[in-house]
Task: inverse folding
């Protein structure tokens, strides 16, 4: 059973190499990608069932016992997110294969895409499963390095500008990450996440706080917390739709995951953390106001993404079981919904030939299916019952009210306000894009550019992929009960930490 | 734990220079900033392992006299990663220079929009005000024409 933990990392890594070898055969590349991602989803499901029943599944790599070797750990949270991510990456892969076939026919190969996409999945899986701070850095680098390649493919002047920002900001945060690791190691002498809490607990409170804050900054840049979010709405919208979807769905959420992991496991907080509450409030409000000010569909969705990171931060900042359970539900919901929205935005822009909300109209009449595919995740994002967003938001609001301090109430109020403003923002998209007379598609400004190419044509594959993601988000709402129970158990694990430490370090480390 | 003052000063210098260069407008300087900051971070990992000592070969020295090998392994990994990413960054910067014809960091899109809106409002108030900064006119990337030998 334990060997299963290594597979979500190993399979895509090997498949990436294989995919590069068979790059002359697009059919093989597609087959490899789809098979491996399906396999990861199945394995993640098995890991989740196992972790839920018997506690975290642990693999000590190379047989070196923790805390000296590298440890892979699949606990409830990691397995749940791994499963969600696998489903989203699979859907996005099908979407981009569909798009590729529609645009260029079956026989053309896009050499770099498949291997890089699989590397991205490797990085994401490793980030979820690793039980070691330095290995987390390596996971981030694998993920980011492949995302650099994906975002800079077929560079136009606009895209090179945006991706430059992205690469430099990400690199800076990675260098801060190394600095943080050096400081943590100098202070404690270990980088194993399970061994750290005890050592950190012995440190001076001032040192503890500064290490904790440095971690918030490092992961905050990746997760795009206000005021560290400026790079995101600038760089994401320039990439092709499927790439943006997977970035928006996964990369920021991996940052959030790292934040949750380190703040609960390594630093033990007994009460809500006001600094983080303030950041959560700012992130929600600034993000959603930024979204309302936009006219570009993708930029608007990117700002909404920033805004909703605030919700996850809110639940984390409370440091209660219900709060964290809400965060876990929210992350699962948001990964699927945000990816679905960006895929739909890809469909819309292919029909209209523009991303400007002023310039498009009448999509609902011309393509009713696209309208449905947009409406469901959009309502879910705004938190309208009975969709998944509602379930996740209500959990967070309850958690906020349960804590009951003035700061918690303030952020709870901001969360409700943000929810309403999100509804306003998606209504703006709806009015701009879907209502009105059916407009003529705008001519492609640059026929060689992949982002706007192929106006007016969508294949079944793309619709099925988007529909699949929307269906997953609806299923999250249908199975909200069991999922909420699972999240609560995962959250209790996180706050307790004992099970994780015992599983990694053996009996001695637990207690 | 003893503190190595020389190393501390060198690290402080590297970080300062790195962050200073990161905030420059020329892309080349930004990349140099990343490189220097990377050196700082990697050196920091090394220093985190404590004072120098005997090499780690079983039986060659007393265990107490040996250095901690883990930070060295970490630093080695980090060096490889920063090295690879620096190469990538250089390639990207070259591409940027080939496409845009200059190596300036472009303005933020929101900043440009705000400035444009401001200019339009001013234009409405006193329409005879001449545009003071023609070089910065709208949409930052209508750069001077791209050089001829654009690699494809």
Result:
């Amino acid at each position: 059973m334990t060997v299963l933990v290594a597979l979500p990392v190993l399979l895509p890594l090997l498949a990436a190499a294989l995919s590069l070898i068979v790059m002359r055969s697009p059919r093989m590349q597609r087959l490899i990608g789809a098979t491996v991602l399906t396999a990861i989803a199945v394995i993640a499901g098995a890991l989740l069932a196992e972790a839920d029943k018997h506690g975290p599944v642990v693999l000590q790599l190379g047989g070196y016992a923790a805390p000296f070797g590298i440890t892979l750990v699949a606990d409830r949270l990691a397995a749940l997110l791994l499963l969600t991510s696998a489903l989203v990456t699979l859907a996005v892969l099908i979407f981009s294969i569909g798009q590729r076939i529609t645009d260029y026919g079956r026989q053309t190969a896009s050499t770099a895409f498949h291997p890089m996409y699989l590397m991205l999945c490797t990085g994401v899986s490793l980030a979820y499963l690793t039980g070691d701070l330095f290995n987390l850095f390596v996971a981030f680098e694998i993920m980011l390095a492949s995302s650099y390649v994906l975002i800079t493919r077929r560079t136009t002047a606009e895209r090179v500008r945006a991706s430059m920002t992205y690469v430099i900001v990400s690199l800076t945060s990675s260098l801060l990450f190394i600095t943080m690791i050096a400081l943590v190691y100098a202070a404690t002498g270990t980088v194993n996440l399970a061994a750290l809490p005890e050592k950190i607990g012995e440190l001076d409170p001032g040192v503890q706080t500064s290490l904790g804050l440095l971690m918030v900054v490092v992961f905050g840049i990746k997760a795009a917390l206000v005021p560290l979010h400026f790079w995101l709405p600038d760089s994401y919208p320039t990439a092709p739709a499927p790439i943006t979807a997977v970035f928006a769905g996964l990369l920021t959420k991996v940052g959030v995951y790292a934040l949750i992991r380190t703040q609960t496991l390594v630093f033990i907080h007994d009460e809500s953390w006001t600094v983080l509450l303030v950041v959560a409030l700012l992130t929600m409000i600034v993000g959603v106001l930024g979204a309302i000010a936009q006219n570009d569909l993708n930029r608007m969705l990117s700002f909404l993404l920033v805004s909703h990171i605030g919700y996850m931060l809110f639940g984390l900042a409370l440091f209660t079981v219900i709060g964290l359970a809400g965060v876990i539900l929210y992350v699962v919901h948001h990964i699927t919904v945000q990816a679905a929205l960006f895929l739909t935005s890809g469909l819309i822009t292919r029909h209209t030939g523009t991303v400007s909300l002023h310039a498009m109209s009448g999509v609902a009449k011309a393509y009713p299916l696209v309208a449905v595919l947009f409406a469901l995740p959009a309502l879910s994002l705004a938190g309208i019952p009975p969709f998944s967003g509602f379930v996740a938001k209500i959990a967070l609001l309850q958690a906020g009210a349960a804590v009951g301090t003035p700061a918690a109430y303030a952020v709870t109020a901001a969360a409700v306000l943000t929810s309403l403003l999100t509804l306003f923002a998606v209504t703006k998209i709806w009015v701009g894009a879907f209502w009105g007379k059916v407009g003529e598609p705008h001519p492609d400004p640059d026929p060689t550019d992949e982002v706007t190419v192929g106006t007016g044509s969508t294949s079944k594959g793309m619709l099925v992929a988007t529909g699949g993601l929307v269906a997953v988000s609806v299923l999250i709402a249908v199975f909200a009960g069991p999922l909420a129970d699972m999240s609560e158990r995962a959250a209790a694990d996180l706050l307790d930490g004992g099970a994780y430490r015992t599983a990694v370090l053996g009996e001695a480390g637990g207690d | 734990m003893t503190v190595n003052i020389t190393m501390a000063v060198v690290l402080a210098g590297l970080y300062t220079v790195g962050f200073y260069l990161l905030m420059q407008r020329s892309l080349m300087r930004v990349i140099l900033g990343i490189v220097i900051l990377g050196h700082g971070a990697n050196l920091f990992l090394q220093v985190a392992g404590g004072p120098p000592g005997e090499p780690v070969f079983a039986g060659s020295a007393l265990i107490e006299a040996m250095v901690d090998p883990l930070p060295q392994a970490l630093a080695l990994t980090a060096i490889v990663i920063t090295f690879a990413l620096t190469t990538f960054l250089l390639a990207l910067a070259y591409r940027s220079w080939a496409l845009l014809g200059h190596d300036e960091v472009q303005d933020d899109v929101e900043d440009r929009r705000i400035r444009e809106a401001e200019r339009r409002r001013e234009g409405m108030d006193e329409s005879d005000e001449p545009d003071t900064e023609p070089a910065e006119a709208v949409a930052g990337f209508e750069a001077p024409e791209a050089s001829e030998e654009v690699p494809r």
